[in-house]
């Protein structure tokens, strides 16, 4: 470090390939000791390599003398690890203040009320038997982590054809009706139509199509139809076919509309659909 060589006397070097294996060995030894405990076993123990999340309930409260001993030991450990003394003092003082507040009968009453079993309702979308398995696992995990909570799980149906293809229009802002839509543009000289979708205002999208025709945009299907057939698109009679906020559903609907045109579509089908 900074042109000086140091010898590591304890632990494993950062980035060493042996570190994960040694961490596993150490943690397995620790877990064996935890399993041998006859009381105060952890209620929940989760581990990933050497990162542990664990909590346990204790049936007794340390005496003031023992608390002071523990605080002194904690202060020494934090100091040895380089923590500033003012941060250590602040933390221990705040801990003592909290402990004093908990000794107040009013705070004890609040804690006692909070320890009563509470019902909490949770909704899961139903996808089959797997949903029930997931629900039971969630209830079990909740019971382990929060014993004072009685989790009640309800199941609801998922998307239906009605919710996907018949979105409710009631109460929508008028300006929003011009966005997230599917539209069609007829040809003045034949019965071909262009089907499109946009998340923006329909008037802006139509104006973009007009601009493509004026500048002869090579990648535009409308421009190709106009040039090859010598036809004129009827932009003034473009209509809104459907409203859909979800992009994927909107694209699928566009493909359905294009497919239902029976070959009289100017645009290509984005999704190849197997429709019988």
Write a structural description.
- The chain is α+β, with helices and mostly antiparallel strands.
- The chain has four domains: 19-60, no CATH class; 63-116, no CATH class; 117-156; 171-260, GIY-YIG endonuclease (3-Layer(aba) Sandwich), CATH 3.40.1440.
- The protein contains nine helices and seven strands, in the order αββαααβαβαββααβα.
- It has helices at 19-35, 64-80, 85-103, 105-114, 129-145, 161-165, 202-215, 221-229, 247-260, and strands spanning 44-48, 51-55, 118-125, 149-156, 181-186, 193-198, 239-243.
- The strands form three sheets. The chain has a three-stranded antiparallel β-sheet with strand order 6-5-7, with helices on one face. The chain has a two-stranded antiparallel sheet with strand order 1-2.
- The termini are far apart.
- The relative contact order is 0.07.
- The model has no long low-confidence stretch (mean pLDDT 81).
- InterPro entries: RT_dom.
């Amino acid at each position: 470090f900074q042109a000086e060589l140091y010898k590591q006397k304890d632990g494993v070097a950062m980035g060493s390939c042996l570190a994960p294996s040694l961490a596993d060995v150490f943690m397995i030894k620790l877990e064996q000791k935890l399993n041998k405990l006859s009381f105060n076993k952890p209620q929940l123990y989760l581990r990933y390599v050497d990162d542990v999340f664990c909590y346990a309930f204790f049936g007794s409260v340390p005496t003031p003398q023992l608390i002071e001993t523990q605080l002194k030991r904690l202060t020494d450990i934090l100091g040895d690890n380089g923590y500033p003394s003012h941060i250590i003092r602040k933390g221990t003082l705040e801990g003592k203040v909290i402990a004093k507040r908990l000794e107040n009968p009013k705070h004890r009453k609040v804690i006692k009320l909070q320890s009563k079993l509470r019902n909490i309702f949770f909704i899961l979308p139903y996808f089959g038997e797997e949903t029930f398995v997931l629900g039971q696992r969630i209830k079990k995990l909740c019971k382990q982590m929060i014993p004072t909570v009685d989790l009640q799980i309800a199941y609801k149906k998922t998307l239906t054809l009605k919710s996907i293809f018949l979105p409710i229009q009631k109460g929508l802002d008028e300006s929003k009706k011009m966005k997230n839509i599917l539209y069609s543009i007829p040809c003045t000289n034949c019965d071909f139509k262009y089907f499109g979708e946009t998340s923006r205002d329909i008037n802006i999208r139509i104006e973009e199509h007009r601009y493509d025709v004026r500048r002869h945009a090579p990648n535009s299907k409308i421009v190709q139809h106009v040039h090859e057939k010598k036809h004129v698109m009827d932009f003034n009679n473009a209509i809104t076919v459907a409203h859909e906020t979800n992009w994927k559903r909107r694209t699928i609907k566009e493909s359905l509309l294009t497919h239902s045109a029976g070959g009289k579509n100017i645009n290509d089908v984005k999704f190849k659909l197997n429709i019988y």
